[in-house]
Each structure stands twice: as structure tokens, then as C-alpha cells.
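Q: Two folds, back to back.
A: First:
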Amino acid sequence: MKKYKNFTIKEYLDVLSKKEPVPGGGSAAALTGALGAGLITMVANYSRAKSSSKVIEKKIQKIILESERMKNRLLELVDLDARAYIGIVEAKKGSSKEKNAAVRNAKKVSKEVCTLSYKAIQLTPFLVEKGNKYLISDIEVAIEMLFAAFNSSLALIKS
């Protein structure tokens, strides 16, 4: 099966809309987080070479590397969440031990989405202060997407 991370946006939305167990909310939350992290990378890329300070440039380069790594991992979690939920569906026929293990595995994915989203948000204050001033609204959008990914994943952990 083709990985969801390799779907076009339209393909992903079409399959998300079907009466199928996956992808679902966890996968969508991870994708939302990846989009937010991608926006952080974009703003950081536009902010490079705008300062005469090597310290600022070094920090911006670090933000690019970190946000890119987070984006890529969140994109991997789109598929890992779907796989984890399929595990829950399959475990419904099994023992309570199997069911509990499947639920723990799925919650582990959601916890990682929460952690990465939180860490990505922490990259933004420096960009607001020292980054490209014309892209503050893109940072705000990134933060909102990362909050949505965090809160959505938190809801899944609580359920």
C-alpha cells in the first residue's frame, strides 16, 4: 500500500473522507503538525542572510535544521498513526492484553505528535524577533497549526 505521506493532498483528503478506519484524526493531526513545522522552515529560509550577525545566522540555520527534522518526523507519524490504529482494530478480536498494548502503541504516536508540536512552537519566538518581519503572519499560522496538532493529539491520548 502506498504511504499516506506520498499521497497528493487531494488523494489524502479523498481517502480521509471515506468510511474507512484509517486515516483518521491522529493521522490528520500529524499532518497538520508537519504543515506547521514546514511553515517555520519557510520563514527561517526567508530570514537567512538578512542579518549581519553571525550569531543570528547560526541560530536561524539551527532552526531550519530542527524544524525540517520535525516536519519529516511528523510526516512519518501520519503513517505510523494509521498503522497503530489498524493495530487497535485488529486487537479488538484479541485478548485484553493485546487490546491494551495496541492502545498504548497508538497513544505513543499521539504523544510524539504532542512533543514535536510543542518543540516546534518553541522555535518561533526567535523568528518573530529576528526573522523576516514580512512573514510574522506565517509564523502565526504555523503556531495555530501546531497548537491544533498538539490539542488534537492530546484529545486522542485522553480518549
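A: Second:
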Amino acid sequence: MSKAKDTPSESIAEAANTTDWAMDTRGRRITVSKLDALQYYRLAKAMGAVSSNQAAMDFAMIAATVRKIDATKFPIPSTERDVEFMIQQLGFEGINAAGVALEKLNRQDEEAKKAEEEAAKN
């Protein structure tokens, strides 16, 4: 059972630290966390001219959310070369699993928002 948050900033801080995972078809556990606005901005800035290519940015964004592959931890990429490294580590299998984990995080966020709205009504 989760405790109620006392302030909006506590809710935001907890959401920022939320992670989820999915298993890829190679049997690796891919753990992700959402990027906040500043992290996304920095990623777009690091990607430079590539940031105008939506397909490339989609790959970069997914790769940048990966915090762990199995037990190996990864920081948020800060350069285009870091993003390329993550994509190379993940391959299509890992990118797909990271996408699944991000979808689970988004569903959890939506459910939490609905629960907060219902609680506020009562």
C-alpha cells in the first residue's frame, strides 16, 4: 500500500524516480526510467542536427531512458556518441523491451492521476 504524498513536489519527485522493466527476446532485463523535461532538453541538444529527424530522436529517447541492462547500470547519455553506444548495446530487441517498459510506466502514471482525481472528488 502506498502512502499519500504530502505535497505536489513529493509526487513529482517520486514519479521521477519510478522505474520499470521488461525482458527482451535475448533474455536481458531492460530497466528504464522516464526522462524529465530538462533531461529531454539536454538529450535533444546533445543530438544536435539529428534532433530534427523524428525517427532518430525516437530511438535516442528510448535509449536514453535505459538505466540498466541486467545488472549493468548506465547513466543518461550526454553526447550523441553515448546514445549510439546505448543503441548498440540494446539492439532492436532491447529497444523494443525498453519501449514496453516505458508504456507500462505511462499506464501507471495515468492510473495514479485518475486515482488522485477520484480522491480529490471525495
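Q: And?
A: Residues 18-121 form a domain with the rbstp2171 fold (CATH 3.30.2220).
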